[in-house]
Write a structure and sequence with these properties.
Blueprint: H1 17-26, H2 29-35, E1 37-40, H3 42-48, E2 52-54, E3 60-63, E4 72-79, E5 84-93, E6 99-105, E7 109-113, H4 129-138, H5 143-151, H6 161-185
Parallel strand pairs: 1-7
Antiparallel strand pairs: 1-2, 3-4, 3-7, 4-5, 5-6
């Protein structure tokens, strides 16, 4: 069994398969969920201009390899921890007669139809004109914000008084100059 190590997002790719497996094994769930991806069908690739997407519940997929090859079905469940996808069709009978879903790796699937119920699947929707105007108003820079960035002093009342006065005078001048330059560029 793989040894548990602290997972690092800054890890550089290794050629060694054992290190790649260890990286996948120790990855946190928010990274593992990105690994549960499948290719889109050619029609969907043209429509969405993407080659692959995460598989989510209620997507219709086509199984590309294995015993259930070329069969289509709905995704019932996803086990992110083990990176397994369970499809309606992929069932196996146990010895006692009960049926069990067979886990399939997402790389062996192709998405035929997407579940579009989740609005966050393709990112944010385009903003309306009113929302764009509101965001422009919020992005205006105030002199106090520039003062805090330049000096690093959030509350000008801390520190010795003589240094405070000098720092405040200098920063106010530079802040006003920067605001003027920013307004000219707009």
């Amino acid at each position: 069994m793989a040894t548990t190590r602290k997972w690092s997002s800054s890890w550089k790719a290794s050629v060694q398969p054992r290190k790649q497996r260890l990286y996948n094994y120790n990855a946190p769930l928010h990274i593992k969920s990105k690994m549960v991806c499948a290719h889109l069908s050619k029609d969907l690739q043209k429509k969405y201009k993407q080659r692959s997407l995460r598989v989510i519940k209620d997507d219709v997929v086509k199984i590309m390899t294995g015993d259930f090859k070329k069969q289509q079905g709905k995704v019932i469940r996803i086990n992110t921890k083990k990176q397994e996808v369970f499809v309606e069709i992929a069932k196996r009978k146990r010895q006692d007669g009960s049926e069990v879903f067979v886990p399939i790796n997402a790389s062996n699937l192709q998405i035929i139809e997407l579940n579009l119920n989740n609005p966050r699947r393709f990112g944010k929707k385009p903003e309306t004109e009113q929302e764009m105007q509101k965001s422009e108003k919020d992005t205006k820079i105030k002199p106090q914000q520039i003062f805090e960035k330049d000096t690093g002093i959030k509350n000008p009342q801390k520190g010795s008084k003589s240094h405070q006065k000098k720092d405040i005078k200098k920063s106010k001048k530079t802040a006003k100059q920067k605001v003027e330059v920013l307004e000219e560029t707009r």
